[in-house]
Specification:
Helices cover 28% and strands 26% of the residues. Strands 2-3-4-5-6-7-9-10 form an 8-stranded parallel beta barrel, surrounded by 6 helices. α9 links the parallel β6 and β7. The longest helix is centred in the middle third of the chain and has 19 residues. It is elongated, with a radius of gyration of 25 Å. The two termini are 14 Å apart. The protein binds (3S,4R)-3-hydroxy-2-oxopiperidin-4-yl beta-D-xylopyranoside. (3S,4R)-3-hydroxy-2-oxopiperidin-4-yl beta-D-xylopyranoside binds next to loops.
């Protein structure tokens, strides 16, 4: 009945020198015992002529578990808060770069490029700016840009010069700058930024301009007119604070049309939020969404890089701003790599160093199944596994059971979308009460975390239907 068909899949990454384990048909293949052998997202992106980065904020720089990832995984850092006006010019004419400098120093110490964020924005703007008389505001704005961009000259590769200046319907947001200076304030800001730091690429940055629509049309028209008039603009930042399952279908086309105007495009603040808690189905959708975004950027030469808006779900701005939502990033709270991480990894050309082993068993009801086992994350002392059950028979299953052996002292800890029992080294997972029925050729996936201190070879999993 049972025909083991061990199958291993590995594609070499451009920058992955070391591979782990031996490719062999019909045998379990060793998964990497640590992530160290794998290229980082930053390295993979660099091999594609792009950067892959993360925003960060000052309080987290004292957390060594956090900085270990921040300093190694990414090729680029965005200063998440502390270059904003509220921090850099809290009182008129008094500049403070203490915290922004800390992040820049961290990036430099880790060979990471820095995106500066942001010079002119209606939020995180100190109250005093709002009360500047209309006749003085242009001078105040120019002075702010001259000082801040002047201070960071040579240390940032991009500046988000103006942030979020449009409404959803494509009209100008009625910020204090718009109200007191009129439409020309954006062009004035770009001219001042060019004068202060001629080598930084100057970006207009906004949200909900990832797809084609009224708002992105307005930005498009502005960029086109800036190019016609010789106003210095080099790039458009698509923030990409996205919702699970709602990556705009026109994303690639939209990136392309900006590129065709002669500017670069960057994905500047990527996160993809879901209703919490996470589950395997949402994680899989999120992985697909991240993959779509990365692929859209890679499809357009002038899409220069991608930045996630912090990298770990424990350090994301989403839960505080969108109640009931979160889990928007590529690492979990404990710095475990999520399926979304591996989707980015693969989309950037990384190898799947995890392996799959499937075994088909035909059970009752004429239905058969395969179990595909994958290590989706591995960290010091622990791992995350995922098993996809596929119905290979002609009739729906009424239930399924997957079994494997933990040969190296690993454990299975918390498990979702299934019911686990263990007997020594033997692990048995039965369907939960809601996912025992799988249509012919349909799949269902369960996941788990566990501990592993030595090697963590991928086991041969067997699948039985009932
Ligand atoms: C957010 C920060 O992440 C938060 O810590 C802060 O409280 C508010 O601002 N668009 C932007 C970013 O351009 O600057 C915002 O960052 C998120 C939305």
């Amino acid at each position: 009945m049972s025909a083991p068909t061990g199958r291993a899949r590995r594609v070499l990454a451009a920058t992955a020198a070391a591979v782990v384990g031996t490719l062999a048909v019909g045998m379990a293949v060793a998964a990497p015992s640590s992530a160290a052998a794998e290229p980082t997202l930053g390295q993979l992106a660099a091999a594609k002529g792009r950067y892959f980065g993360s925003a960060t904020d000052n309080p987290t720089l004292t957390n060594s578990a956090y900085t270990a990832v921040l300093g190694s995984e990414f090729g680029q850092i965005t200063v998440g808060n502390t270059q904003k006006w509220q921090y850099t010019e809290p009182r008129r004419g008094q500049f403070d770069y203490t915290q922004g400098d800390q992040i820049v120093a961290f990036a430099q110490a880790h060979n990471q490029i820095v995106r500066g964020h942001t010079l002119v924005w209606h939020n995180q703007l100190p109250d005093w700016v709002t009360s500047v008389p209309a006749g003085e505001l242009l001078g105040v704005m120019r002075n702010h840009i001259a000082n801040v961009a002047g201070h960071y000259k040579g240390t940032v590769v991009h500046w988000d010069v103006v942030n979020e200046a449009f409404e959803e319907n494509g009209t100008r947001r009625q910020s204090v700058f718009q109200q007191k200076l009129g439409d020309s304030y954006i062009a004035e800001a770009f001219k001042a930024a060019r004068a202060a730091d001629p080598n930084a690429k100057l970006y207009y940055n906004d949200y909900n301009i990832e797809g084609i629509g009224a708002k992105s049309d307005a930005v498009y028209n502005m960029v086109r007119s800036f190019k016609q008039q010789g106003i210095p603009i080099d790039g458009v930042g698509l923030q990409a604070h996205l919702v699970l399952g709602q990556v705009p279908s026109s994303l690639r086309q939209n990136i392309q049309r900006f590129a065709d105007l002669g500017v670069d495009v960057a994905i500047t603040e990527l996160d993809i939020r879901m209703r919490t808690p996470r589950d395997a189905a949402k994680d899989a959708q999120q992985a697909a969404d991240y993959r779509t975004v990365v692929n859209a950027c890679l499809a357009v030469t002038r899409c220069v890089g991608i930045t996630v808006w912090d990298f770990s779900d424990g350090y994301s701005w989403i839960p505080s701003v969108f109640p009931g939502e979160g889990a928007a990033l590529i690492y979990d709270e404990n710095f475990g790599k999520k399926p979304s991480y591996w989707a980015v990894f693969e989309a950037l050309g990384g190898t799947t160093t995890t392996t799959t082993t499937t075994t088909t068993t035909t059970g009752g009801n004429g239905a058969g199944c395969t179990a595909t086992y994958r290590v989706v994350g591995q960290w010091n002392g622990g791992y995350q596994g995922e098993v996809t059950v596929r119905n290979t028979g002609a009739t729906a299953t009424t239930g399924w059971t997957v079994r494997w052996t933990l040969a190296q002292g690993q454990t299975v800890g918390s498990l979702w979308n299934g019911v686990v029992s263990t007997n020594g080294q033997e692990v048995t997972v039965r369907n939960a009460n809601y996912n025992g029925t799988v249509a012919p050729n349909g799949t269902t996936t369960f996941g788990f975390t566990g501990s592993s201190t030595g090697t963590n070879p991928v086991p041969t999993a067997t699948c039985t239907t009932s």
